[in-house]
User: Fold this.
Amino acid sequence: MELIDGLRQRKTYLSTVEVMSLLRVTRNTLCDWVRTGRITAVRRGNGYLFDPQILADWLEQRTTSRRQTTVVA
Assistant:
């Protein structure tokens, strides 16, 4: 939850490299997620910018879903 709280406090967009590091995914994976609509980003030049609030919401939704699945199973 520290990650989500930190994203919610952030006022500037995150770069592709920053999000790759936070989510521990490769550039190809992250770009595929954007292209398929799994995660929202703004195109800028050859890369993407990520709104920290939207990213926090996305992470929170994934965390909540996993917890509900674990508890139900």
Q: What stands out?
A: The beta strands are 14-15, 42-44, 47-50. The CA atoms of residues 5 and 24 lie 18 Å apart.
